[in-house]
Design goal:
Length: 220
């Protein structure tokens, strides 16, 4: 087996690459990155990703890090699945939303996840009210952009899910415990319900529930 995914699946960024690989039906070897034991700092892992972050993909001698880049690479393994369009405009549209995710959506959601979830796992104190207020201001600045798109389309870029959906939906895996303020955004909530109903999403989530995390980090 040539394809290997190194991930901490409880992290949104680890979760999305595993869920996408499962959705695509790819044959891969999963290697658990135990953040609690510092696996990400071991020399053999740093040789794969000098940033010391997961997830990481290995495909024979090729090594790839950054979760959104991994998503696109996985999609290209099965182009017939339509997870990454073949046309230049279709691919650019998906990539645009993945860049928007990396620049805006993911960092905003990460504030809520860190304050309400990660701090609890790490036992590093109560949520910071100032950080949460900053997160809420930014969330309500950018969430309407996604809300408008999802009022027009079933999924972010059309009638079926692409890697953009897996990228954008992954932080919402923690929407309830992280107290991400989704209440005003009916289209986003409808879309996430559709994403979480996908067999591959449910399969990946059920595996996580069967193996509670010993530690937690957001990854890259």
């Amino acid at each position: 087996m040539s394809l290997t995914l190194h991930a901490f699946p409880h992290s949104p960024r680890g979760f999305k690459v595993l869920a996408a690989a499962n959705h695509l039906g790819l044959d891969y070897e999963f290697r658990f990155v135990d953040l609690g034991k510092g696996d990400q700092k071991r020399p053999e892992f740093l040789a794969l990703n000098p940033n010391g972050r997961m997830p990481v993909l290995e495909d024979d001698a090729f090594v790839l890090w950054e979760s959104n880049a991994i998503l696109q690479y996985l999609a290209d393994k099965k182009p017939e699945a339509g997870m990454l369009p073949m046309s230049a405009r279709g691919r650019a549209d998906v990539t645009r939303w993945m860049f928007w995710d990396a620049s805006h959506w993911d960092p905003i959601c990460a504030i809520f996840i860190f304050e309400h979830v990660v701090k609890g796992f790490l036992k590093t104190g109560a949520p910071d009210a100032a950080e949460i207020a900053k997160g809420e201001q930014r969330f309500h600045q950018f969430a309407p952009v996604l809300e408008i798109q999802l009022k027009m389309h079933k999924f972010v870029c059309g009638d079926k899910p692409t890697v953009a959906d897996f990228s954008l939906a992954s932080p919402l895996y923690y929407a309830e415990p992280a107290k991400i303020p989704l209440a005003p955004y009916a289209a986003i909530r409808r879309w996430y319900t559709d994403m979480s109903a996908l067999p591959a999403w449910k399969e990946t989530s059920e595996r996580n529930l069967a193996a509670p995390p010993r530690d937690f980090s957001l990854g890259a």
